[in-house]
Specification:
Layout (H helix, E strand, L loop, with lengths): L1 H22 L1 E16 L12 E16 L2 E13 L25 E11 L6 E10 L12 E12 L5 E11 L13 E8 L2 E3 L2 E12 L5 H6 L11 E3 L6 E12 L5 E22 L5 E23 L2 E10 L4 H4 L3 E2 L37 E14 L2 E12 L4 H4 L18 E14 L2 E13 L2 H4 L7 E11 L1
Parallel strand pairs: 14-16
Antiparallel strand pairs: 1-2, 1-21, 2-3, 3-4, 4-5, 5-6, 6-7, 7-8, 8-10, 9-10, 10-12, 11-13, 12-13, 13-14, 14-15, 15-17, 17-18, 18-19, 19-20, 20-21
Protein backbone atom coordinates (compact mmCIF):
# COMPACT_ATOMS: atom_id res chain seq x y z
CA UNK A 1 0.00 0.00 0.00
CA UNK A 2 2.82 2.41 0.85
CA UNK A 3 4.34 1.81 -2.58
CA UNK A 4 0.98 2.55 -4.24
CA UNK A 5 0.65 5.85 -2.38
CA UNK A 6 4.22 6.73 -3.30
CA UNK A 7 3.53 6.13 -6.99
CA UNK A 8 0.28 8.07 -6.78
CA UNK A 9 1.96 11.08 -5.18
CA UNK A 10 4.73 10.95 -7.79
CA UNK A 11 2.10 10.95 -10.55
CA UNK A 12 0.25 13.91 -9.02
CA UNK A 13 3.54 15.80 -8.70
CA UNK A 14 4.39 15.08 -12.36
CA UNK A 15 0.95 16.24 -13.49
CA UNK A 16 1.42 19.39 -11.43
CA UNK A 17 4.69 20.09 -13.21
CA UNK A 18 3.04 19.60 -16.58
CA UNK A 19 0.25 21.98 -15.60
CA UNK A 20 2.75 24.56 -14.38
CA UNK A 21 4.74 24.23 -17.59
CA UNK A 22 1.63 24.87 -19.63
CA UNK A 23 0.79 27.95 -17.52
CA UNK A 24 4.17 29.57 -18.05
CA UNK A 25 5.34 30.58 -21.51
CA UNK A 26 9.12 30.36 -21.78
CA UNK A 27 10.92 32.40 -24.43
CA UNK A 28 14.63 32.23 -25.09
CA UNK A 29 16.84 34.86 -26.70
CA UNK A 30 20.53 35.51 -26.78
CA UNK A 31 23.67 36.98 -28.27
CA UNK A 32 26.52 34.57 -28.91
CA UNK A 33 29.68 36.37 -29.98
CA UNK A 34 33.08 35.40 -31.35
CA UNK A 35 36.02 37.69 -32.05
CA UNK A 36 39.30 37.09 -33.87
CA UNK A 37 42.01 39.50 -34.92
CA UNK A 38 44.79 41.85 -33.92
CA UNK A 39 45.09 44.84 -31.59
CA UNK A 40 48.44 46.54 -31.08
CA UNK A 41 49.62 49.08 -28.49
CA UNK A 42 46.26 49.26 -26.71
CA UNK A 43 48.12 50.87 -23.77
CA UNK A 44 49.94 53.25 -26.17
CA UNK A 45 53.32 51.70 -25.35
CA UNK A 46 55.45 49.77 -27.86
CA UNK A 47 56.32 46.39 -26.31
CA UNK A 48 58.94 44.10 -27.83
CA UNK A 49 57.56 40.67 -28.63
CA UNK A 50 53.98 41.68 -27.92
CA UNK A 51 51.33 39.06 -28.77
CA UNK A 52 48.77 41.06 -30.74
CA UNK A 53 46.42 38.26 -31.85
CA UNK A 54 43.34 37.33 -29.87
CA UNK A 55 40.56 34.74 -30.20
CA UNK A 56 37.68 34.96 -27.75
CA UNK A 57 34.00 34.23 -27.31
CA UNK A 58 31.08 35.27 -25.08
CA UNK A 59 27.64 33.67 -24.85
CA UNK A 60 24.72 35.56 -23.32
CA UNK A 61 21.44 33.62 -23.08
CA UNK A 62 18.20 35.05 -21.71
CA UNK A 63 15.07 33.20 -20.63
CA UNK A 64 11.74 34.96 -20.09
CA UNK A 65 9.16 33.13 -17.97
CA UNK A 66 5.82 34.82 -18.69
CA UNK A 67 2.66 33.90 -16.83
CA UNK A 68 0.73 36.75 -18.49
CA UNK A 69 1.25 40.20 -19.92
CA UNK A 70 1.28 41.48 -16.34
CA UNK A 71 3.82 39.09 -14.82
CA UNK A 72 7.11 37.70 -16.05
CA UNK A 73 10.53 36.78 -14.77
CA UNK A 74 13.78 37.26 -16.66
CA UNK A 75 17.09 35.41 -16.27
CA UNK A 76 20.19 36.07 -18.33
CA UNK A 77 23.35 34.02 -17.99
CA UNK A 78 26.76 34.71 -19.47
CA UNK A 79 29.67 32.42 -20.30
CA UNK A 80 32.79 34.42 -20.95
CA UNK A 81 34.48 36.40 -22.14
CA UNK A 82 36.68 33.35 -22.79
CA UNK A 83 40.10 33.70 -24.38
CA UNK A 84 40.77 30.62 -26.50
CA UNK A 85 43.54 28.56 -24.94
CA UNK A 86 43.64 30.45 -21.64
CA UNK A 87 42.54 29.26 -18.20
CA UNK A 88 41.43 31.53 -15.38
CA UNK A 89 44.86 32.75 -14.21
CA UNK A 90 45.85 29.39 -12.80
CA UNK A 91 42.58 28.87 -10.92
CA UNK A 92 42.00 25.39 -12.33
CA UNK A 93 39.42 26.63 -14.82
CA UNK A 94 37.15 28.01 -12.08
CA UNK A 95 35.80 31.55 -12.16
CA UNK A 96 34.99 34.27 -14.63
CA UNK A 97 36.71 33.80 -17.96
CA UNK A 98 37.67 30.21 -17.17
CA UNK A 99 37.39 27.30 -19.56
CA UNK A 100 39.30 28.43 -22.62
CA UNK A 101 42.25 26.08 -22.18
CA UNK A 102 42.60 22.39 -23.02
CA UNK A 103 39.61 20.17 -22.12
CA UNK A 104 37.52 23.39 -21.83
CA UNK A 105 35.72 22.28 -18.66
CA UNK A 106 35.37 25.67 -17.01
CA UNK A 107 33.11 26.53 -14.08
CA UNK A 108 32.21 29.87 -15.58
CA UNK A 109 28.47 30.55 -15.82
CA UNK A 110 27.72 34.06 -14.56
CA UNK A 111 24.44 35.68 -13.59
CA UNK A 112 23.95 38.71 -15.79
CA UNK A 113 20.31 39.63 -15.15
CA UNK A 114 17.70 38.26 -12.74
CA UNK A 115 14.53 40.30 -12.24
CA UNK A 116 10.75 40.18 -12.15
CA UNK A 117 8.42 42.49 -14.10
CA UNK A 118 4.89 42.85 -12.74
CA UNK A 119 1.97 45.21 -13.02
CA UNK A 120 0.12 46.48 -9.96
CA UNK A 121 -3.39 44.98 -10.23
CA UNK A 122 -6.10 47.24 -11.69
CA UNK A 123 -3.55 49.99 -12.50
CA UNK A 124 -1.11 50.93 -15.26
CA UNK A 125 1.77 50.99 -12.77
CA UNK A 126 4.60 48.54 -13.57
CA UNK A 127 7.39 47.32 -11.31
CA UNK A 128 10.77 45.83 -12.15
CA UNK A 129 12.84 44.46 -9.29
CA UNK A 130 16.11 42.53 -9.20
CA UNK A 131 19.39 42.51 -11.09
CA UNK A 132 18.66 44.59 -14.18
CA UNK A 133 20.33 46.87 -16.71
CA UNK A 134 19.83 50.47 -15.69
CA UNK A 135 20.76 53.40 -17.90
CA UNK A 136 19.90 56.98 -17.06
CA UNK A 137 18.33 59.03 -19.90
CA UNK A 138 20.28 59.44 -23.15
CA UNK A 139 19.08 61.13 -26.35
CA UNK A 140 22.45 61.13 -28.12
CA UNK A 141 22.58 57.37 -28.57
CA UNK A 142 26.01 56.93 -27.02
CA UNK A 143 25.07 56.20 -23.42
CA UNK A 144 24.92 58.08 -20.13
CA UNK A 145 28.29 58.27 -18.34
CA UNK A 146 26.75 58.57 -14.86
CA UNK A 147 25.13 55.13 -14.87
CA UNK A 148 24.87 52.64 -17.73
CA UNK A 149 25.36 49.29 -16.02
CA UNK A 150 23.79 46.17 -14.59
CA UNK A 151 22.78 46.81 -10.97
CA UNK A 152 20.50 45.57 -8.20
CA UNK A 153 17.52 47.92 -8.34
CA UNK A 154 13.80 48.52 -7.93
CA UNK A 155 12.15 50.60 -10.68
CA UNK A 156 8.49 51.68 -10.63
CA UNK A 157 6.89 53.33 -13.69
CA UNK A 158 3.75 55.49 -13.47
CA UNK A 159 2.27 56.32 -16.90
CA UNK A 160 0.19 59.47 -16.49
CA UNK A 161 -0.91 59.44 -20.13
CA UNK A 162 0.28 58.26 -23.51
CA UNK A 163 2.76 61.15 -23.59
CA UNK A 164 3.91 61.62 -19.98
CA UNK A 165 5.23 59.13 -17.46
CA UNK A 166 7.33 58.95 -14.33
CA UNK A 167 9.89 56.32 -13.30
CA UNK A 168 11.18 56.13 -9.73
CA UNK A 169 14.33 54.10 -9.06
CA UNK A 170 16.11 52.81 -6.00
CA UNK A 171 19.41 51.03 -6.70
CA UNK A 172 22.12 49.67 -4.45
CA UNK A 173 25.36 49.55 -6.48
CA UNK A 174 27.66 48.87 -3.51
CA UNK A 175 27.41 47.44 -0.01
CA UNK A 176 30.68 46.20 1.43
CA UNK A 177 29.10 45.07 4.72
CA UNK A 178 25.53 43.98 4.13
CA UNK A 179 25.60 41.66 7.17
CA UNK A 180 27.10 43.88 9.84
CA UNK A 181 24.82 42.66 12.62
CA UNK A 182 24.39 45.11 15.48
CA UNK A 183 27.59 46.97 14.60
CA UNK A 184 26.37 48.44 11.33
CA UNK A 185 28.52 50.97 9.48
CA UNK A 186 26.44 53.27 7.31
CA UNK A 187 29.59 54.35 5.44
CA UNK A 188 29.98 50.91 3.84
CA UNK A 189 27.14 51.15 1.31
CA UNK A 190 25.85 53.25 -1.55
CA UNK A 191 22.20 53.86 -2.34
CA UNK A 192 20.97 55.66 -5.45
CA UNK A 193 17.53 57.25 -5.88
CA UNK A 194 16.38 58.65 -9.22
CA UNK A 195 13.30 60.23 -10.78
CA UNK A 196 12.87 60.22 -14.57
CA UNK A 197 10.07 62.13 -16.31
CA UNK A 198 9.84 61.28 -20.05
CA UNK A 199 7.59 63.55 -22.10
CA UNK A 200 6.85 62.54 -25.71
CA UNK A 201 5.45 64.77 -28.44
CA UNK A 202 5.01 64.55 -32.19
CA UNK A 203 8.57 64.15 -33.41
CA UNK A 204 10.30 65.03 -30.12
CA UNK A 205 11.14 63.68 -26.67
CA UNK A 206 11.98 65.69 -23.56
CA UNK A 207 13.25 63.83 -20.49
CA UNK A 208 14.34 65.72 -17.37
CA UNK A 209 15.78 63.59 -14.59
CA UNK A 210 17.42 63.85 -11.21
CA UNK A 211 19.31 61.45 -8.97
CA UNK A 212 20.69 61.38 -5.44
CA UNK A 213 23.15 58.93 -3.90
CA UNK A 214 24.41 58.40 -0.39
CA UNK A 215 28.02 57.28 -0.87
CA UNK A 216 29.96 55.56 1.88
CA UNK A 217 33.72 55.89 1.65
CA UNK A 218 34.10 52.20 2.61
CA UNK A 219 31.28 50.98 0.34
CA UNK A 220 33.62 49.49 -2.27
CA UNK A 221 33.06 52.25 -4.82
CA UNK A 222 36.66 53.50 -4.77
CA UNK A 223 38.01 49.94 -5.00
CA UNK A 224 35.78 49.39 -8.04
CA UNK A 225 37.09 52.53 -9.74
CA UNK A 226 40.71 51.75 -8.90
CA UNK A 227 40.37 48.34 -10.51
CA UNK A 228 39.38 49.95 -13.81
CA UNK A 229 42.36 52.28 -14.12
CA UNK A 230 45.06 51.75 -16.71
CA UNK A 231 47.95 53.54 -18.42
CA UNK A 232 48.81 56.98 -16.99
CA UNK A 233 45.41 57.09 -15.36
CA UNK A 234 45.85 57.91 -11.73
CA UNK A 235 49.37 57.34 -10.46
CA UNK A 236 48.14 54.93 -7.85
CA UNK A 237 48.64 51.25 -7.24
CA UNK A 238 46.16 51.07 -4.36
CA UNK A 239 43.60 53.15 -2.53
CA UNK A 240 43.19 52.90 1.22
CA UNK A 241 40.71 54.73 3.41
CA UNK A 242 41.09 56.75 6.60
CA UNK A 243 37.76 57.28 8.33
CA UNK A 244 35.32 58.67 5.85
CA UNK A 245 31.66 59.17 6.58
CA UNK A 246 28.93 58.80 4.00
CA UNK A 247 28.68 61.77 1.64
CA UNK A 248 25.98 63.18 -0.61
CA UNK A 249 26.08 62.98 -4.41
CA UNK A 250 23.42 64.41 -6.69
CA UNK A 251 22.83 64.88 -10.40
CA UNK A 252 20.42 66.75 -12.63
CA UNK A 253 20.05 66.12 -16.34
CA UNK A 254 18.06 66.64 -19.49
CA UNK A 255 17.82 64.48 -22.60
CA UNK A 256 16.20 66.03 -25.66
CA UNK A 257 15.57 64.34 -28.99
CA UNK A 258 14.11 65.87 -32.15
CA UNK A 259 13.01 63.95 -35.26
CA UNK A 260 10.28 66.30 -36.52
CA UNK A 261 12.68 67.94 -38.98
CA UNK A 262 13.13 64.76 -41.01
CA UNK A 263 15.56 64.02 -42.66
CA UNK A 264 17.42 65.86 -39.86
CA UNK A 265 17.51 64.48 -36.32
CA UNK A 266 19.01 66.05 -33.22
CA UNK A 267 20.02 64.61 -29.85
CA UNK A 268 21.16 66.56 -26.79
CA UNK A 269 22.28 65.50 -23.29
CA UNK A 270 23.03 67.96 -20.49
CA UNK A 271 24.18 66.63 -17.10
CA UNK A 272 25.49 68.28 -13.93
CA UNK A 273 26.68 66.42 -10.84
CA UNK A 274 28.12 67.25 -7.43
CA UNK A 275 29.73 65.05 -4.75
CA UNK A 276 30.36 66.27 -1.19
CA UNK A 277 33.59 65.61 0.64
CA UNK A 278 34.69 62.14 1.75
CA UNK A 279 37.97 61.57 3.62
CA UNK A 280 40.15 59.05 1.81
CA UNK A 281 43.86 58.29 1.67
CA UNK A 282 45.26 57.98 -1.86
CA UNK A 283 48.48 56.03 -2.18
CA UNK A 284 50.39 55.20 -5.34
CA UNK A 285 53.16 56.52 -7.51
CA UNK A 286 53.72 59.92 -9.05
CA UNK A 287 54.72 60.82 -12.60
CA UNK A 288 58.39 60.14 -11.75
CA UNK A 289 57.58 56.70 -10.39
CA UNK A 290 58.04 57.68 -6.74
CA UNK A 291 55.62 56.37 -4.12
CA UNK A 292 53.33 58.86 -2.41
CA UNK A 293 50.48 58.85 0.08
CA UNK A 294 48.06 61.71 0.49
CA UNK A 295 45.01 62.39 2.65
CA UNK A 296 42.30 64.30 0.81
CA UNK A 297 38.75 65.38 1.44
CA UNK A 298 37.56 64.00 -1.87
CA UNK A 299 35.00 66.20 -3.60
CA UNK A 300 34.06 66.64 -7.23
CA UNK A 301 31.58 68.61 -9.30
CA UNK A 302 31.25 68.96 -13.07
CA UNK A 303 29.03 68.82 -16.09
CA UNK A 304 28.74 67.26 -19.53
CA UNK A 305 27.19 68.51 -22.74
CA UNK A 306 26.86 66.04 -25.63
CA UNK A 307 25.05 66.50 -28.94
CA UNK A 308 24.57 64.79 -32.27
CA UNK A 309 23.11 66.00 -35.57
CA UNK A 310 22.30 63.49 -38.30
CA UNK A 311 21.03 63.82 -41.85
CA UNK A 312 19.38 60.72 -43.26
CA UNK A 313 20.04 59.74 -46.88
CA UNK A 314 18.66 56.94 -49.03
CA UNK A 315 21.89 54.99 -48.63
CA UNK A 316 22.85 55.88 -45.03
CA UNK A 317 23.27 58.93 -42.85
CA UNK A 318 25.78 61.74 -42.34
CA UNK A 319 26.36 62.79 -38.76
CA UNK A 320 28.19 65.41 -36.71
CA UNK A 321 28.68 64.82 -32.99
CA UNK A 322 30.57 66.37 -30.14
CA UNK A 323 30.86 66.66 -26.38
CA UNK A 324 32.41 68.85 -23.69
CA UNK A 325 32.93 67.80 -20.10
CA UNK A 326 34.64 69.78 -17.39
CA UNK A 327 38.03 68.70 -16.07
CA UNK A 328 40.13 69.01 -12.95
CA UNK A 329 41.37 72.38 -11.75
CA UNK A 330 44.94 72.35 -10.42
CA UNK A 331 44.29 74.68 -7.49
CA UNK A 332 41.22 72.77 -6.35
CA UNK A 333 42.79 69.32 -6.89
CA UNK A 334 45.55 70.26 -4.46
CA UNK A 335 42.84 70.42 -1.78
CA UNK A 336 41.15 67.22 -2.93
CA UNK A 337 38.43 68.85 -5.05
CA UNK A 338 38.12 67.72 -8.64
CA UNK A 339 36.22 69.14 -11.59
CA UNK A 340 34.80 66.08 -13.31
CA UNK A 341 31.22 64.88 -13.30
CA UNK A 342 30.85 62.07 -10.72
CA UNK A 343 30.03 58.69 -12.27
CA UNK A 344 28.99 55.33 -10.81
CA UNK A 345 29.02 52.42 -13.28
CA UNK A 346 31.27 51.88 -16.28
CA UNK A 347 30.03 48.71 -18.02
CA UNK A 348 28.98 50.70 -21.08
CA UNK A 349 29.35 54.35 -20.07
CA UNK A 350 29.62 57.00 -22.80
CA UNK A 351 30.74 55.60 -26.16
CA UNK A 352 31.53 58.17 -28.87
CA UNK A 353 34.04 55.81 -30.53
CA UNK A 354 34.52 52.06 -30.97
CA UNK A 355 38.12 51.70 -29.76
CA UNK A 356 38.95 54.63 -27.51
CA UNK A 357 35.47 54.33 -25.95
CA UNK A 358 33.25 51.33 -25.17
CA UNK A 359 31.60 51.32 -28.59
CA UNK A 360 32.73 47.99 -30.05
CA UNK A 361 29.91 46.03 -31.65
CA UNK A 362 30.35 43.16 -29.20
CA UNK A 363 33.60 41.87 -27.67
CA UNK A 364 36.20 43.63 -29.78
CA UNK A 365 39.00 45.63 -28.17
CA UNK A 366 37.68 48.96 -26.88
CA UNK A 367 37.73 51.43 -23.92
CA UNK A 368 41.47 51.98 -24.35
CA UNK A 369 40.97 55.65 -23.40
CA UNK A 370 37.94 55.82 -21.17
CA UNK A 371 34.53 54.37 -20.38
CA UNK A 372 33.06 57.86 -19.90
CA UNK A 373 35.35 60.45 -21.60
CA UNK A 374 34.83 62.76 -18.63
CA UNK A 375 37.56 65.37 -18.42
CA UNK A 376 37.71 65.69 -22.22
CA UNK A 377 36.09 67.43 -25.15
CA UNK A 378 35.76 66.09 -28.65
CA UNK A 379 34.21 66.49 -32.05
CA UNK A 380 33.60 63.96 -34.79
CA UNK A 381 31.98 63.29 -38.13
CA UNK A 382 30.67 60.01 -39.47
CA UNK A 383 29.05 58.29 -42.41
CA UNK A 384 26.86 55.70 -40.69
CA UNK A 385 25.22 52.55 -42.02
CA UNK A 386 25.87 53.41 -45.66
CA UNK A 387 25.21 50.59 -48.07
CA UNK A 388 25.34 50.03 -51.80
CA UNK A 389 25.26 46.22 -51.65
CA UNK A 390 22.39 44.28 -50.12
CA UNK A 391 23.07 43.07 -46.55
CA UNK A 392 26.42 44.90 -46.40
CA UNK A 393 26.77 48.22 -44.52
CA UNK A 394 29.66 50.43 -43.42
CA UNK A 395 30.38 53.16 -40.86
CA UNK A 396 33.30 55.57 -41.17
CA UNK A 397 33.99 57.80 -38.15
CA UNK A 398 36.68 60.46 -37.60
CA UNK A 399 37.03 61.83 -34.05
CA UNK A 400 39.34 64.37 -32.42
CA UNK A 401 39.45 64.69 -28.64
CA UNK A 402 41.49 66.62 -26.09
CA UNK A 403 41.70 66.79 -22.30
CA UNK A 404 40.08 69.50 -20.19
CA UNK A 405 42.09 68.66 -17.05
CA UNK A 406 44.69 71.34 -16.26
CA UNK A 407 48.17 69.97 -16.86
CA UNK A 408 49.39 71.31 -13.50
CA UNK A 409 47.25 68.62 -11.85
CA UNK A 410 49.66 66.01 -13.20
CA UNK A 411 52.79 68.07 -12.55
CA UNK A 412 51.74 68.46 -8.91
CA UNK A 413 50.85 64.73 -8.62
CA UNK A 414 47.19 65.26 -7.81
CA UNK A 415 45.67 63.36 -10.74
CA UNK A 416 43.13 60.71 -9.78
CA UNK A 417 41.11 58.39 -12.00
CA UNK A 418 37.57 57.98 -10.77
CA UNK A 419 35.68 58.14 -14.08
CA UNK A 420 36.71 54.84 -15.64
CA UNK A 421 39.49 56.34 -17.74
CA UNK A 422 42.50 54.34 -18.90
CA UNK A 423 44.40 57.44 -20.04
CA UNK A 424 44.26 60.75 -18.17
CA UNK A 425 44.24 63.56 -20.75
CA UNK A 426 45.31 67.09 -19.82
CA UNK A 427 44.66 70.31 -21.70
CA UNK A 428 48.00 69.75 -23.46
CA UNK A 429 47.18 66.20 -24.61
CA UNK A 430 45.18 65.24 -27.68
CA UNK A 431 44.22 62.23 -29.75
CA UNK A 432 42.79 61.45 -33.18
CA UNK A 433 40.80 58.28 -33.84
CA UNK A 434 39.55 56.63 -37.03
CA UNK A 435 36.92 53.88 -36.98
CA UNK A 436 36.04 52.02 -40.17
CA UNK A 437 33.53 49.26 -39.39
CA UNK A 438 31.65 46.90 -41.67
CA UNK A 439 28.64 44.61 -41.10
CA UNK A 440 27.55 41.80 -43.39
CA UNK A 441 24.27 40.02 -42.68
CA UNK A 442 24.94 36.37 -43.51
CA UNK A 443 21.50 35.36 -42.26
CA UNK A 444 18.79 37.28 -40.43
CA UNK A 445 20.28 36.01 -37.17
CA UNK A 446 23.97 35.90 -38.08
CA UNK A 447 26.13 38.98 -38.60
CA UNK A 448 29.78 39.19 -39.63
CA UNK A 449 31.47 42.41 -38.47
CA UNK A 450 34.90 43.78 -39.31
CA UNK A 451 36.16 46.54 -37.00
CA UNK A 452 39.22 48.55 -38.02
CA UNK A 453 40.47 51.41 -35.86
CA UNK A 454 43.52 53.63 -35.49
CA UNK A 455 44.35 56.06 -32.66
CA UNK A 456 47.17 58.58 -32.60
CA UNK A 457 47.89 59.88 -29.09
CA UNK A 458 49.94 63.02 -28.57
CA UNK A 459 50.86 63.58 -24.91
CA UNK A 460 52.99 66.54 -23.87
CA UNK A 461 56.58 65.45 -23.20
CA UNK A 462 57.14 68.15 -20.59
CA UNK A 463 54.36 66.61 -18.49
CA UNK A 464 54.69 62.90 -19.13
CA UNK A 465 58.40 62.56 -19.92
CA UNK A 466 60.29 61.77 -23.10
CA UNK A 467 58.70 58.38 -23.81
CA UNK A 468 57.14 58.50 -27.25
CA UNK A 469 53.51 57.41 -27.44
CA UNK A 470 52.88 54.43 -29.69
CA UNK A 471 49.89 54.55 -32.00
CA UNK A 472 47.16 52.01 -31.26
CA UNK A 473 45.22 50.06 -33.87
CA UNK A 474 43.00 47.04 -34.29
CA UNK A 475 41.68 44.87 -37.10
CA UNK A 476 39.22 42.34 -35.70
CA UNK A 477 36.52 40.13 -37.16
CA UNK A 478 33.41 39.56 -35.03
CA UNK A 479 30.65 37.01 -35.52
CA UNK A 480 27.32 37.59 -33.78
CA UNK A 481 24.57 34.98 -33.59
CA UNK A 482 21.38 36.44 -32.13
CA UNK A 483 18.08 34.70 -31.59
Amino acid sequence: MQRVWTLALAGIFALGLVGAARAVEVQFSGDWDFAFGWADNADFADHDGEDDFMARQRFRTQAVFAVSEDLRGVLMFEIGTLEWGRDSSGNNNVGRGAGGSIDTDGVNVETKLAYVDWAVPSTDVSVRMGLQHLVLPDAVGRGNPVLNSDVAALAVTFPFSGRVGLTAVWARPFDAGSEDGDDRNLADEMDLFALILPVTGDGWTFTPWGAYARLGAASGFFDYVAGLSGANSAFFEDISFSGGDASNVWWGGLAFGLTALDPFSLGLNVIYGHADGTDITISGRNSQGNAFSEDVDFRTAGWLLAATLDYKLDWGSVGLFGWYSTGDDAGDAQDGEYGRLPAIGFDNGFAPTSMGGPGSYSIGTDTVFSATFLGTWGIGVQLADWSFVEDLSHTLRLTYYRGTNEHEVVEDDHALAFSGEAVYLTDKDQAFEINFNHLYKIYDNLNLILEMSYIHLDQDEDIWGDDEDADAWKAQMLLNYSF
